[in-house]
């Protein structure tokens, strides 16, 4: 009898072990999938990794025993993805990193739950891809304006899918990556000739469309403008990366004099205008006398209009604006753009009156930044009498579709950035990769000018033609092609995301309300 009972216990243990360990195995696989997906993000940029990561996550989700287990799997994926890729936030504060990781991972948990819910449909690969795109849409807007930094559409600028950017934008590229991964999981969970045929057809269609976009030549520019750029250099390192007040402006002024000397000596051609980076002044040049003098002297030295990234006071007490001012050599201030996408807990504090007394560390934010509302389209006049339309983005702006797409009619794009606090981290390369995707999306020459790297020139296909990675001072002169016409992506990408979000919500709701036959779960096969 004892022997029989022992044998039964052993048999029960063999049957029970997979069920007990399945959640841990699924979470481990999902965490690894997150790590794999993260290698597609700059600076590594292994573009084949994201669809593989999506595939592994989807298999793990389908083998989860409940929606709660699926959420845990998604959380593990999110931590695996965001932990290494967003570690640069520790340069601001460890608590800021923890908060960002929790936010990002929570969105991944939502994604996993929706992917599992989609599994009740015969067309679940498509539904899961729509749901994923819907979560990316929401994450880029909620909360406090959103944080869409890790959208999969940013990972494909060097892949065969890059030709899709001007047609369906970053959102469409995200959908293409996710659907590819979902179809891979579809085959793994139930191999069949039918599934292989459908998946092969998708690959033919998506690669064909991307190839068409890649081989279609970019129309020649209608003209050319010559732009000087000045990277003054910054001390770097954490929230005080710009150094003591006026340090960054002093550096910019010194480098601008070097640019002027190189032009006068004939080592560099005379530009039509010069670009300074975001936060080239950390005080308002109109109210701080020394800052104003440095700016005026620099503009006079180069003898050309300068697009100055300035901090301006107001509009109210203890408020400030991050702006791009077109300043003429005669002292006139031309068109001005006010940054629209300001960083929560970096440039402004949500619920400031409540949180600031509770979290004194937030004092580093300083005055409350106020976001602009108008597009960064600056109609400026060059010294030779030509009038051109420049599209201007400030740093964090590049991660937000509406702000970028509002520049569709600009003839060339300028991105001013201040990454001094993130020197030595992956954040700088990640932002530059996002900017490359935006240049391809808008099909515009794009000049990026930063306080301390990366400064660079990107052509309309997203290819880098000039890049300065060192954080110290650097100057130069480049040519930007002036183009007209708008891409399909500039007006189609956001409606596609909205449609995908609504369609996924309605489809999953219908599945939830429709009874389905109970199916036995097997941890090695899936649900």
From TrEMBL:
One Pfam match: CN_hydrolase
InterPro entries recorded: Apolipo_AcylTrfase, C-N_Hydrolase, C-N_Hydrolase_sf, LNT_N
A GO cellular component entry from the record: plasma membrane
Keyword Lipoprotein: yes
Annotated ranges, domain CN hydrolase: 235-482
Pathway field: Protein modification; lipoprotein biosynthesis (N-acyl transfer)
Gene Ontology MF: a single term: N-acyltransferase activity
Topology versus the membrane: Multi-pass membrane protein
Enzyme class: transferase
Location within or outside the cell: Cell membrane
BP GO annotations: lipoprotein biosynthetic process
Residues that span the membrane, as ranges: 21-38, 44-62, 69-90, 96-117, 124-144, 164-189, 196-215
Main location, first listed in the record: membrane
EC number(s) recorded for this UniProt protein: 2.3.1.269
Keywords noted in UniProt: Acyltransferase, Cell membrane, Lipoprotein, Membrane, Transferase, Transmembrane, Transmembrane helix
Biological role stated in the UniProt entry: Catalyzes the phospholipid dependent N-acylation of the N-terminal cysteine of apolipoprotein, the last step in lipoprotein maturation.
PANTHER family in UniProt: APOLIPOPROTEIN N-ACYLTRANSFERASE
NCBIfam families assigned: lnt
UniProt cross-references to HAMAP family, sorted A to Z: Lnt
Protein's recorded name: Apolipoprotein N-acyltransferase
């Amino acid at each position: 009898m004892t022997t029989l009972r022992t044998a039964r216990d052993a048999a029960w243990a063999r049957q029970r072990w997979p069920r007990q360990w399945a959640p841990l195995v699924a979470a481990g696989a999902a965490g690894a999938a997150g790590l794999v997906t993260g290698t597609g993000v700059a600076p590594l940029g292994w573009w084949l990794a994201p669809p593989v990561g999506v595939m592994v996550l989807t298999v793990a989700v389908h083998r989860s025993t409940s929606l709660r287990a699926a959420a845990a799997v998604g959380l593990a994926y999110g931590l695996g993805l965001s932990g290494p890729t967003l570690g640069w936030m520790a340069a601001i504060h460890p608590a800021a990193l923890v908060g960002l990781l929790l936010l990002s991972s929570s969105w991944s948990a939502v994604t996993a739950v929706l992917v599992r819910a989609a599994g009740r449909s015969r067309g679940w690969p498509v539904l899961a891809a729509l749901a994923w795109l819907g979560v990316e849409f929401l994450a880029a807007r909620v909360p406090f304006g959103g944080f869409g930094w890790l959208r999969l559409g940013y990972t494909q600028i060097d892949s065969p899918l890059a030709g899709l950017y001007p047609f369906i934008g970053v959102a469409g590229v995200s959908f293409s990556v996710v659907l590819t991964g979902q179809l891979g999981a579809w085959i793994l969970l139930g191999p069949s000739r039918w599934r292989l045929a459908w998946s092969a057809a998708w690959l033919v269609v998506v690669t064909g469309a991307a190839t068409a976009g890649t081989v279609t030549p970019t129309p020649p520019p209608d003209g050319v403008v010559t732009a000087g750029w000045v990277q003054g250099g910054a001390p770097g390192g954490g929230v005080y990366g710009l150094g003591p007040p006026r340090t960054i402006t002093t550096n910019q002024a010194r480098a601008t004099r070097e640019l002027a000397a190189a032009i006068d000596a004939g080592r560099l051609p005379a530009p039509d205008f010069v670009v300074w980076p975001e936060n080239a002044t950390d005080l308002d040049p109109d109210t701080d006398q020394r800052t104003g003098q440095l700016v005026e002297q620099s503009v006079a030295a180069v003898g050309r209009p300068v697009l100055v990234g300035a901090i301006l006071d107001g509009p109210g007490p203890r408020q400030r604006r991050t702006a791009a001012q077109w300043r003429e050599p005669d002292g006139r201030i031309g068109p001005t753009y006010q940054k629209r996408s300001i960083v929560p807990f970096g440039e402004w504090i949500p619920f400031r009156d409540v949180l600031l007394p509770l979290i004194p560390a937030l004092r580093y934010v300083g005055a409350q930044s106020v976001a602009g509302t108008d597009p960064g389209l600056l109609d400026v006049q060059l010294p030779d009498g030509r009038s051109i339309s420049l599209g201007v983005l400030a740093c964090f702006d590049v991660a937000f579709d509406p702000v970028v797409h509002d520049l569709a009619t600009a003839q060339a794009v300028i991105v001013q950035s201040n990454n001094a606090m993130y020197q030595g981290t992956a954040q700088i390369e990640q932002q530059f990769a996002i900017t490359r995707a935006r240049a391809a999306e808008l099909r515009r020459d794009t000049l990026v000018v930063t306080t301390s790297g990366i400064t660079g020139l990107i052509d309309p296909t997203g290819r880098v033609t000039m890049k300065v990675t060192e954080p110290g001072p650097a100057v130069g002169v480049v040519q930007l092609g002036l183009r007209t016409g708008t891409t399909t992506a500039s007006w189609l990408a956001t409606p596609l995301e909205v449609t995908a979000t609504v369609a996924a919500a309605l489809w999953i709701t219908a599945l939830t309300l429709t009874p389905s036959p109970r199916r036995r779960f097997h941890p090695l096969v899936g649900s």
